[in-house]
Amino acid sequence: MPTPDPAVAEVRLAVRTALASLPEPPRAVVIGLSGGADSLALAAATAFEARRAGVEVVSVTVDHGLQEGSDAQAARAAETARSLGIRALVEPVEVRDADGDGLEAAARDARYAALRTVAQAERAPVLLGHTLDDQAETVLLGLARGSGAASLQGMARVRTDPDDTVWLRPLLAVRRTTTRAACAAQGLEFWDDPHNDDPRFARVRARSRVLPVMEEELGPGIAEALARTAEQLREDAEAFDEMIHETIEDIVEHAEAGISISASALAANPAALRNRIIRLVVDSEFGASLTRRQTIEVARLVTDWSGQGPIDLPGCRAQRRGGRIEITARP
Fold first, then answer.
1. Which chain positions lie within coiled-coil regions (predicted)?
2. Spatial distance between the Cα atoms of 12 and 41, rounded to a whole number of angstroms
3. Are 37 and 180 in contact (CB under 8 A)?
4. What tens digit of pLDDT does each residue of 125-134 get?
5. Coil vs helix vs strand at 207
6. What's the pTM?
7. Which residue, among 155, 123, 159, has the nearest Cα to 138 in the 3D structure?
């Protein structure tokens, strides 16, 4: 058997390692396939590894309908997946910025909702093609937002949602140049999304303007350093989270459409722990990451209560009722 191209071998090893990390071998896996180099390299590697493990691979290409010809591009991506032996689905979605968080966030929410629906139907984990470069950009944007260690942790390699949907990112240690090389080595024609070069989006500016300047002025290896920072912070945060879960169990109760936290118990904790509890509760219950300002505003319902009204947060709303802080899903 011929030795695979080094880039192909690296991506396959990353996928094999990710699948081996699951508690039980899956019957099937779902891949979020955009048709770009990252997700296409992931799909090819997963198809190869899955054949050896007897696992079915299902790809989901989400057509956001935001660009002319997006349906044709989604169909091409699905056809490429089928050529790899993958059961390919195309899911059209409607993208609406109902929360005012921006088009990019609305498209992401619609995409993840479509992937979650298929994953639950297949009872399978979802594999996403985020690379080390994506992780570095995420950490840099988190630093710019100033929302603390939570945002600097970047994306998790493995995440299990409250609905038991499992998300895997096998390529977080793989560079974007490697995925493109892997596609080229296998003769896979990938698609470059024009949005990835649109400077209206902060992530594009971080990728095309900020990181190159940092590399030039501070030396090479900035992306790897940012990714290492994310991994170290995530390890620290996971250990800290385990320690405060017991506190959360004592002061948090389930409420209609959300949760309720004892204001006096929150007030009794140091500010760092109080803010951490707020962020952790919102993240675990609603899958939302709060900025520093949002966290402080929620904390003021405890520390500086003067009858202020509800606070709108990503996907949820916080308000004080008597001696408790209620955080519920936004209508």
1. 223-250
2. 9
3. yes
4. 999 999 999 9
5. helix
6. 0.76
7. 155
pLDDT tens digits for range 38-90: 999 999 999 999 998 899 999 999 988 878 888 899 999 999 999 999 999 99
Tokens of 303: 């520390």
Confidence label for 262 from pLDDT (cuts 50, 70 and 90): very high
* 98 against 158, higher pLDDT: 158
Query: Average pLDDT in the 262-267 region?
Result: 92
Tokens of 313: 């947060």
Characterise 36 by phi-psi region: left (phi > 0), alpha (psi -120 to 50), beta (else).
beta
Q: What is the length of the chain?
A: 331
Residue 195, classed as helix, strand or coil, is helix
CA-only gyration radius of the chain, Å? 21
Map out the domains of the chain with their CATH numbers. Answer: 6-130+169-206 (3.40.50.620), 235-329 (3.30.465.60)
- The β-bridge relationship of strands 87-92 and 56-63 is parallel
- Which residues define the annotated binding site? 34-39
Both tokens assigned to 133: 């470069």
The one-character DSSP state at 258 is E
